[in-house]
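Run log // design_07
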């Protein structure tokens, strides 16, 4: 009888261990499925287009930020915020990235899709100062969002870039042959992160 009880105890323990292993396997599979298919929003560069101003024909450039969802599912509850700084000197290390202002844009990005966030209009002569390194232009932003899976946590992406190496003439309209005005944006040494790295 004592042997029978011991066998029963061992069988019960084995069944418990098997159930625990199965539960852990399901959890691992779910985590892997979410990780492989969740929305994944990141900064995807800036675009700029020249526009003549009607009143005095002064040329300006309209800047927008591209956000891309590299994931396999759409975003949920996506909020984005972008800002620019047009400074007289390089950004101070004590600069505070304040994204608490109530100007977030709520939107959605389809799987493998992208959206644009308007940033700022800058005149050609202002950009000429950046080209001459008499002014410094920074663009930064934040995206906060969830995914389509139940009990989704909130994800976050932050970026900060500086306009460097301007080529072409910002004081004249963009032209494919005569004036291919271009800006190389370099990432700042902080405020560039995703998810847990932003903690």
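design_07 sequence
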């Amino acid at each position: 009888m004592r042997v029978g009880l011991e066998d029963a105890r061992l069988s019960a323990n084995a069944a418990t261990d098997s159930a625990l292993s199965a539960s852990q396997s399901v959890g691992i599979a779910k985590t892997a499925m979410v990780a492989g298919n969740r929305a994944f929003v990141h900064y995807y560069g800036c675009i700029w287009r020249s526009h003549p101003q009607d009143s005095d024909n002064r040329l300006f450039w309209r800047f927008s930020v591209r956000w891309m969802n590299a994931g396999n599912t759409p975003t949920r509850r996506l909020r984005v915020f972008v800002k620019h700084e047009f400074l007289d000197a390089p950004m101070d290390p004590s600069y505070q990235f304040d994204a608490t202002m109530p100007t977030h844009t709520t939107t959605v990005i389809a799987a493998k899709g992208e959206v644009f966030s308007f940033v700022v209009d800058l005149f050609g002569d202002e950009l000429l100062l950046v080209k001459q390194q008499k002014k410094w232009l920074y663009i930064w932003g934040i995206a906060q969002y969830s995914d389509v899976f139940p009990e989704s946590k909130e994800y976050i992406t932050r970026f900060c870039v500086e306009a460097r190496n301007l080529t072409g003439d910002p004081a004249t309209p963009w032209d494919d042959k005569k004036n291919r005005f271009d800006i190389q944006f370099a990432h700042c040494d902080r405020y560039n992160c995703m998810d847990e790295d932003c903690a």
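The mean pLDDT is 86.
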